[in-house]
Amino acid sequence: MIQDTLGMLDVQDIPPAIWVRRGRPPAMERAHRHDDLEINIVVRGRLDYLLGGRRISIGPGEIALFWAAFPHRLIDPGEADVCWVHLPLSTVLGWGLGEQEIGTLLRMRPVVVPLQEVPVRVVDLFEVWRTELAGDDAEIALLEAQALVRRVLAGHRRSGAAAGASGGTCGAPQEPEGAAHSGQGAAEHAVAMARYLAAHHRLPVSVSDAAGAVHLSPTYAMGVFKKVLGMTVAEYLTMCRLAEAKRLLLTTDWSAADVAHASGFSSQSSFYVHFKRDVGTSPSGYRRRYDFMSH
């Protein structure tokens, strides 16, 4: 069966780690994923990613942040000059970011802002980090990285790009005895559930499964997740499955039925309904539209 041979089909798993690099984009024969916050600073040229089944472009003079746990691959890397930074998500969660900020980072869409929105000389700062992160001053560089991430998120809010991104809850859920009472605790639970769903979306997982992964009741877990992510567990699960389906449509010649099955949809009809609602066209129409990115 397709699912028996799928695994992470042509996706490379990279352990999370602090990593810095500057130069031209590397050729990527296949997608990869890693549990890091990835920072891209485009000094010259352009970066084009296939992320979540969508083409994402980061232009010159822009900085982008995204959670790299979703498979992503550079398309047609050119002569761009780019600064890359990977920071383990576990490190980022230790910064005490607010729920809305964490929710923004966990969505399958990069935060992209012009460098002029960030009131520091980012490229100069990066050059200092390359030395400090490899030496005894890594703690200083991480403090500056935290400040940079917070500034990018603040610039994102100011630009209005985050308008409507944070969903409210339909009444505050009652916390079970022993549950975390802090906003940071709720965010950590939401992150753990998002990680679980991103890793297991091909399986017939349920809200109860995601709640069980963080030892919460399903009702409370649903409230925490929507408060932080701005969407329900079911909506996030569908988003993960649609992203995988789009990736498979562009990187394999599988039939729509096989793609639906491998992506975790319970039926081909369910897949078609969700796909058409999200993309506005059929799976075959989507494949024809982006056929130039298939290889």
TrEMBL record:
The keyword Transmembrane belongs to this UniProt entry's keyword annotation: no
InterPro entries on file: AraC-bd (IPR003313), AraC_XylS_family_regulators (IPR050204), Homeodomain-like_sf (IPR009057), HTH-like (IPR037923), HTH_AraC (IPR018060), RmlC-like_jellyroll (IPR014710)
Regions that span the bilayer: none
SMART domains: HTH_ARAC
PROSITE patterns membership: HTH_ARAC_FAMILY_2 (PS01124)
Gene3D superfamilies, alphabetized: Homeodomain-like (1.10.10.60), Jelly Rolls (2.60.120.10)
The organism's taxonomic lineage, starting at the top: Bacteria, Bacillati, Actinomycetota, Actinomycetes, Micrococcales
GO MF assignments: DNA-binding transcription factor activity; sequence-specific DNA binding
Name of the protein described by the UniProt record: AraC-like DNA-binding protein
Domain HTH araC/xylS-type: 191-289
Region (Disordered): 162-184
